[in-house]
Amino acid sequence: MPTRAPSDLIVIGAGVVGAACAYYAARRGLSVTVIDRGPVAGGTTGSGEGNLLVSDKEPGPELELALLSTHLWRELAERLSARIEYEAKGGLVVAADAARMRALRLFAEAQGAAGVTAREIAGDRLTELEPHLAPDLAGGFLYPQDAQVQPALAAARLLRASGARLRLGEAVTGVLTAADGAVRGVRTAAGELHAPAVVNAAGAWGGALARLAGVNLPVLPRRGFVLVTEPLPRLVRRKVYAADYVADVASDAAALQTSAVVEGTPAGPVLIGASRERVGFDRTLSTEALRRLAAQATALFPVLARVRAIRTYAGFRPYLPDHLPAIGTDPRVPGLLHACGHEGAGIGLAPATGLLVSALLTGDGPPLDPAPFAPGRFAAAG
Fold it and tell me: Is pTM, for the whole model, over 0.85?
């Protein structure tokens, strides 16, 4: 079996998280090969809406990661120009009644102490920001730090800027280790590729990749659907979602959950989410999920009741039980690092993830405390 030229680093996964890992590792002088069984952004990234959010995260490690990524995405937008369709359009979280508004207010106050900017908007002022919103909402909060990118473009541009060697359409079938247990590369049907470090950025398939290395990483897929409307004038200016979405993000429930998330795009279609359910990798169309999404979206934006939905697509969020991604070195296999389990926040958290991984690879000071994301926290379950 042929052995190909060695690299300093192999990244498994050509989604936006893998692309960010390759980009920041290359900026620190490492030679990188990125390998994926499919095309660039062929997994969860290609099914994402491109959300870069701080508005849905409570104070803690994930919010710290998101705030760092917010800064890094602005830098990347300048370096990569408009080719990733970066929009610093802000997010608007709305409450249907007074009780939900009180809960939003407490949430925003806690976020403010952690560095998030949020401005309360009275119910009778919401239509100044979003003219087509339903008129009977109790109020909301405007989050100017929220933004959006086109995720497949972002992954492609990061990979191109990294200069990494790409191996697409090539599934990893094994992780190679030396006599001392340390990583020495990967195996595919095309041969062996050697490197002293391997990053598992396989998204929802990160658990299966970890098993190839003989370790447990309990990544599970959570299926979600997105409705796409016909191209429209810019009816929705920001990312707008109902307060219930925050609770759904933090939920452990396996059953179907839906909460309205509505946003316009530069190309014209309106994207409508979000649903969550744990059904494995089943892509079967759920008419119940789509019905709920349509009903909730038109309750927020009645104008959408007259608009055609022209397609829908499904994706799988890589879910870990404690709702924090696994980022960093695996203590069980020297040279193996993980960068997966971001659930629905992977696109937003990708730059900070890549920067943290590159710092750990090169021994530089990490940009934030890596301990909460340490993959070793799952070692006892292995």
Answer: yes
Write the CB contacts of 132 (distance below 8 Å, at least 6 apart in sequence): 235, 236, 301, 302, 303
The helix/strand/coil state of 107 is helix
Structure-token pair, residue 181: 């247990």
What would the mean pLDDT of 154-166 be, rounded to a whole number? Answer: 97
Write the single-letter amino acid at 304: L
Closest by CA position to 167, among listed 35, 50, 285: 35
Residue whose structure tokens are 């998330």? 261
Q: What is the largest CA-CA distance in the chain?
A: 69
For the chain, list the strands marked E by DSSP: 3-4, 9-12, 32-36, 51-52, 91-95, 119-122, 139-143, 147-148, 165-168, 172-177, 183-188, 191-194, 198-200, 220-229, 239-242, 257-264, 270-276, 309-319, 326-329, 336-340
- Angle of helix 61-79 relative to helix 346-362, nearest 10 degrees, comes to 90
CB contact at 8 A, 209 and 348: no
Give the integer Cα–Cα distance in Å for 279 and 113.
Answer: 37
With b meaning 16 or more CB within 10 Å and e meaning fewer, what string describes 242-281?
bbbbbebbeeeeeebbbbbbbbbbeeebbbbbbbbbbeee
Pick from 71, 108, 329: nearest CA to 199 = 329
Average confidence (pLDDT) over 307-313: 94
